[in-house]
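Morning run. Coffee first, then this:
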Amino acid sequence: MSADPSSESSAASVRAPLPLWTKLAFGAGDLGTAITANLQVFFLMVFLTNVAGLSAGLAGSVLMIGKIWDAINDPIIGYLSDRTPKGRWGRRHIWMISAAIPFGVCFFLNWWVPTTDQTLLFAYYIIMGLLFNTFYTAVNLPYSALTAELTEDYNERTSLNSFRFAFSIGGSIGALLLAQLLFRVIQEPPTQYIVLGGIAAALSVLPIYWCVWGTQQRVREFEQHTPSSCQSRLPLKTQLRLVFHNRPFLLVMGIYLCSWLAVQMTASLIPFFIGDWLRMSPAEYTQVALVVQSTAMGMLFVWSAVSRRLGKKAVYYMGMTLWIIAQAGLFLLQPGQTALVYVCAILAGFGVSTAILFPGQCSPMSLI
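And here it is:
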């Protein structure tokens, strides 16, 4: 019996290297979430206190509740996404299409001050935070799963992640450049943030649709060629037992958690430190953040080359040592020491780049 020509053609197209435009479209899918996440981590806390007028305790609670909900909704949306029927748009794309506009709208509304009453403001930003984190996950988590549904080839998946990483870092730096420009051009803080939120929301939504448009055909071909697995899944209790008995995995996740906790906390507090203690302007602390991220981006290539000679563990230790020196330097800074601020920012960039590269992109055993 002869093979089905259409089936053979589909299988051949799936095994073929991914076209450049497909890789570009896939990479663009991480642009919006990178822009929004970066602006929130650097500016939301200072906006809630200095512009919206919330107390530091209430503003911190808004961020904390949003992050707790983010941790809860991740496995829920992941579970639902895995079990979404493969319709015309595929089980991942339909989530991205449906959540893209609400994602942008909720991000924009985070920068609006609807009232001066602290209780109402607190409730408003809690609701906006919960909604935004829900739609953020609904876009980003199905998008992250697309890598395995575009190709089975290891090298092609690595290439896809390179494009994703380039767009992510580029979006983060671009968001800070946009903020710096608006802070210099617009003088009134409420207007600065509402304009920043509106432009960033539009820039964040459009690439999601580009990603769907550019990867839809390839995902459809891949789904036709690779039928869903019929194997029974392990019970949840068994899965948890396997995870919590995997010591190398737990060690890597602990390192990853602590590294990014340090990044997030420093990024959220640095505007207050630079503005209130060092007496620098909002445009200047945006510039400091740009120095950190630009250094981190440039050092990725350096650390990657060094790791091939010395190993990932040695590189991680070197990067963390420089980061600790930078944090200690910030602790000792006094008003007027602007040059030292940028020295510490560069050193911090060295450390942040290792937090990006390791341990998230290496084998657990390589860091032990």
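Residues 318 and 351 are 8 Å apart (CA to CA). Good start to the day.
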